[in-house]
Design brief:
By secondary structure, this protein is mainly α. It has 10 helices and no strands.
């Protein structure tokens, strides 16, 4: 199985660059999101828990169930494919790798913002950036739209490309999907509001932990890229040092 891992990683990355994430293609991460939403409803709404300790325990249970389910399903699928034939396993591993990465999707969606700004279409730029950020964009000026786009590209370079590739290289699609599960839990319940302050704490802390190294590596790669492409690498480094 390890013999095919690197070819599968390369094939999956190429597929991502070629195909991206077309809207008509159902993404397996949606299944993880559905499981998180169902557990969220079951553990908070149905039980009516409104106690800090109980909410934190429920949040730990959420993380445990989601990770066990994600690891079991992805692992069994991969094991079954390789049991049928090594070629079948390699093909499935390539497809799973492709589904974990988000390189082309990030480029396509961010370029829509760039193109609208170049055309002086502020309304269009606001709508385009709203597709990739989780904030209200309708009152942003052109500079605000550009900043929002740059911030989300930087963040998703880590979350959607660098971190998944590290996980894929270390543990294949199983670890890759486990990372996506952590990332999805954080994006759904990792908020400091009345509902998720305690319940989402475990998911948020785990996301911080698994991204500790990838986020810093992504930042350094972005700084190096700025120098190589003759952008303001010194300012990029200054911003990174300031935000550490």
């Amino acid at each position: 199985m390890l013999y095919y891992s690197m070819p599968a990683l390369a094939a999956g990355f190429i597929l991502d660059l070629m195909i991206g994430d077309p809207r008509w293609l159902y993404h397996p991460v949606c299944l993880i999101g559905n499981l998180i939403a169902a557990l969220d409803h079951r553990l908070l709404d149905v039980t009516g828990i409104r106690n800090e300790k109980k909410e934190r325990r429920a949040g730990i249970l959420l993380v445990t169930v989601v990770l066990l389910a994600t690891g079991a399903v992805s692992g069994l699928l991969l094991w079954g494919a390789y049991a049928i034939a090594p070629v079948a396993g390699c093909i499935l591993e390539s497809i799973m790798t492709y589904q974990i990465l988000a390189t082309k999707c990030l480029k396509v969606e961010s370029m829509k913002v760039y193109e609208r700004l170049r055309a002086d279409d502020l309304a269009g730029a606001r709508n385009a950036v709203a597709m990739i950020v989780g904030r209200d964009t309708q009152n942003l000026d052109a500079a605000g739209v550009a900043k929002a786009a740059v911030e989300t590209v930087a963040e998703n370079t880590s979350d959607g490309v660098i971190a998944p590739m590290i996980c894929l290289a270390i543990g294949g699609p199983v670890l890759g999907f486990l990372y996506k599960a952590v990332n999805t839990m954080d994006s759904m319940v990792g908020y400091k509001n009345d509902r998720y302050l305690h319940f989402g704490r475990a998911a948020a802390k785990l996301d911080d932990l698994v991204n500790l190294i990838p986020s810093r590596l992504a930042a350094l790669l972005l700084i190096v890229s700025a120098y190589l492409l003759r952008y303001d690498g010194k300012n990029a480094y200054r911003i990174w040092r300031r935000d550490r």
